[in-house]
Amino acid sequence: MSKRITKAIVIAAIIGIVQPLVVFAAGGSDQGKAKAATQSQAPGKMVEKYPVIAYGPITGKTAADYKFGFSFGGIASYADPCPGMADLAASELGIPKITVQTPQNWIQNEQNQKLDGLIASGMKGIFMMPSEPTAGNAQISKMVSAGIPVVCMGGPPELPSKTVLTLATEARQAAYDGTVALIQAMGEKGNLVALIPMLNDTNTQKRLTGIKDAIAKYPNVKLLQSIADMENTENAMTQLGDLLAARGKEIDGIMAAGYTAAATCATFMMKPEYAHIKSVGFDTDEKVMTAIKAGKMTGTMSQNPWGQAYISMYTLKMLVDGWKYKAGQPEVINSGSFLITTANVDKYEQMIKDETFKIMATWTDRFDPPVKM
Amino acid sequence: MDRIKKLLRNDLTSVLLPLFVLFIVLVTTSNGFLSAYNITSLLEQITIFVLIGMAQMMVLSLGQFNLALGSMGCLSAISMGFSMQVLGLPVPAAMVIGLAIAALLGWIQGLLIARSGINPFMITLALISVFYGIAAALTQGKAYDRLPATIQKINLLKFGPVPATFLASLIVCALVYFLFRYLDIGKRLLAVGENPLAALFTGIDVKKTITTGHMVSGLLCGIAAIIQISKFGSAQISIGNDWMLTSFVVTVLGGTLLSGGKVSAVGTLLGSFLMMFINNLLVLWGVNAYIFQTILGLVLLGAFEVDRARLSIIKRQMVPTNQESTEGNGDE
Known about the structure:
The structure holds two protein chains of two kinds. Chain A is an alpha/beta fold. Chain A is built from twelve helices and 14 strands. In chain A, helix 8 packs across helix 9. The termini of chain A are far apart. In chain A, 51% of the residues are buried. By secondary structure, chain B is mainly alpha-helical. Chain B contains 15 helices and two strands. In chain B, strands 1-2 form a two-stranded antiparallel ribbon. In chain B, a hairpin with a 2-residue loop joins strand 1 (158-159) and strand 2. The radius of gyration of chain B is 21 Å and the shape is globular.
């Protein structure tokens, strides 16, 4: 065999060998990441097992019938706690751990490939946040038509939808409450800037509506400017930096209604030249929490990704066991949002656990139990 | 041995070989690969890859790039959504409008390239933002999601696990093949791509050919936009934002030259399958999302390297050295 042909075969073989090594070196699959998240973030058992929910596979089913997949709309720190909490629920329920496949970008076609791959590899239930609320509905319909129950979390698809239910923060209300808190900190007067995530995010339009509705209640407060698509840290730093450099003295308050926006805002608020600006963020990035503790930010609206993932797993287990979501129950269930300030910044994790436990206490009441044979 | 050499010389070998290998790997390592659900899903995705690949190939034949391919699809989709939801036009009329607008966008691009003297790369780069900006301004970021149910039925039509849209993409592929193989316009496109000056001296209207090539590329983007709207059930500004890279990859994998003058419609079709199999393999193996793109890039580099190595082998074996001519074929 000639050396050239040998070389070509060796190159192909190297690719075949390197690929799994790279996967291993990068921390394994998303399963490995989920395991790491469980080990670092699990707060301990949050709720007791519910006697009405069967532990492990029911009669006539095996563990393979309880393989569930999770796909968030795109890579985002918001979803980091989700695999760990889903695995915690799985261990309490006696079913396999979650399989995670998330697209790198918030593009529905990319997420569809991940979701189709999950189903092809044997997942029997999906909980997800669609990359795009309207386009995601078509994929949800396709999966449900194939007999796969779907629960959404983080943000609903465009309604009506074939998803069983959505666990999410009531985006408009959370933004409204956060903006009211900000305006009150501003002394109910002045110029306010809104920083919002991607325009095609299911929650963005609702958050913007909530901000505008809150401002409308205070005649001496004006929405100076809103900046959208603050999803990429580098771009967000540039956009906010330019705005503050140009109009920093005119700005009295910043409502940063997104994870990246809030983290970016927190970075700038630590600077003494912006001490006159009040700000409220979204979610609990470390920079935001540090800024609140230092008194540089008024507060942040925390959501409940832990509870959303945890309750979603319980829901999927129930659905596969034969529970049916009752007609007339809401399509979107508020998983809770909390204003975190200096007064309660050290207690917010317990607040979130308490809220999740409160939802779980009556969760099975929303369902009709399986028909007993 | 002669048969193997002949097989290796075939341009499609560089895509057929890895395609065959990947297929075997997928079948043996994933239980769900051959399920009806997965086959349908794969073919639905491949449909878009084929159409945008054909669109890019039209312009690559000229030795140019269509970077604004995704934006053309986006604006075409938005115009169709606007026609259906705001103007209340029936689906066929909206589709005609969308295709006309897509072709017009391509024609504008071609005209600018042919007449302005500005570097074609810069023109298509600028038009990405222009077309997308118009779409964003029209929609204000919102989707046209109250479309007639008829448009979604296009995507739901299937023959067993095979979507009708995939069959439509095969027809488009056949038409493009026919265009390049038998029609004068195809020969003119390739001639301009091979050597514009030589083409001019042979009497070809180079500017008109460039404009026509881009216009057809736009039209194919419009067809892809229709399929995408049907799949999503809505028209939104995110349509087309993942088309550009894929359109280059599937055409180059299939044997189309970036420098122009040589295209392969069948190769682009097979390249679409290869791209989809690679994606499917990475998903089924549970590759971490954070390094997905890295792995994808490495695998694609590997595919190009195998192709380059194959061509190098062929060239060496076609040119006898003094040593070989006196001592016989030492490799056999």
